[in-house]
Amino acid sequence: MNQRILLIDTSAVLHQVKFSLGKHKLSNKEKHTFVIYGFLLKLAFLIKKAKSNVIVFTTDSKASKRKTMYAQYKEKRSKNKTDKQKALDALAYPQFNEIIDYVIPSLGYRNVFGAEGFEADDVIGKICKTYKDSEIVMCTTDQDMYQLLRANVVLFDIRINSWFTHKDFTKKYGIEPKMWKRIKAIGGCVSDNIKGVPIPQPDPKKDVRHVAETGALNFIKGKMGPNTQAYKAITSRAGKDIINRNKKLVILPFKGTPDFPIRPDHPSKSGFIEVCERFGFDSLISDIGYYQTIMRLR
User: Fold this and answer.
1) What's the predicted TM-score (pTM) here?
2) pLDDT exceeds cutoff 90 at 25
3) Angle value at C-alpha 210, between 206 and 215, nearest 5 degrees
4) Which one is the CATH code of 4-169+256-292: 3.40.50.2000, 3.40.50.1010, 3.40.50.720, 3.30.1360.10?
């Protein structure tokens, strides 16, 4: 059987489950297992969609090497949370840990990969570039992954359950995916709080503007006038320095990411039942035939 690897951005999947199932749980005093339940459903759905025979779960390190290079990296993510979001996190995060530490190993999946200082994106990038002869499905919500798209690598967006391929990318943006890292280096990355190249303002009292994704794309495609402020900023010495710094931040995998040798999985029917019994998921046990087929439980 040809190797078809399902690369799961575990944190992205868990957060998506948290948001979709967690809103009504804040006032519920019962033991909270909704993320674990939703994860099992989502995992079966992804395996069915991807038709994969190799499952890889990727994880983030608590500390990022990118943070030492750029202090503002992702700094706004936790600061902007509301009290309700923080309360939901307090219910969900213990379940996240239980899924990583107990659920996934109990199901018989052996490829849970992460490394100190590196992110799930780096693990995904490393595997995409290591297993070039395999078909790969990246399950994530992160557009940074566009740079990894190839004939053998596709993306499945778990927010909208939609495929995005190399062909889709070139049709939408008019460039090759390998150029995406340069787009992000010039235009920055809003989700990671990486600023694009600053555009000088005639009025110093006004907020500094930065080149954004659209501007970066126009520049790369030769559609930006050489007399514009944005063009001058991008081609300036200061602009080039920022682009070089950003490129190191956005390129996947990050320099120094280790290898992740994939081992054979042993998805287990008994393990699936054990997990469901532990958390009281009787409805999943009653449909064990379906999950046994989809997840190849033996």
Assistant:
1) 0.93
2) no
3) 130
4) 3.40.50.1010
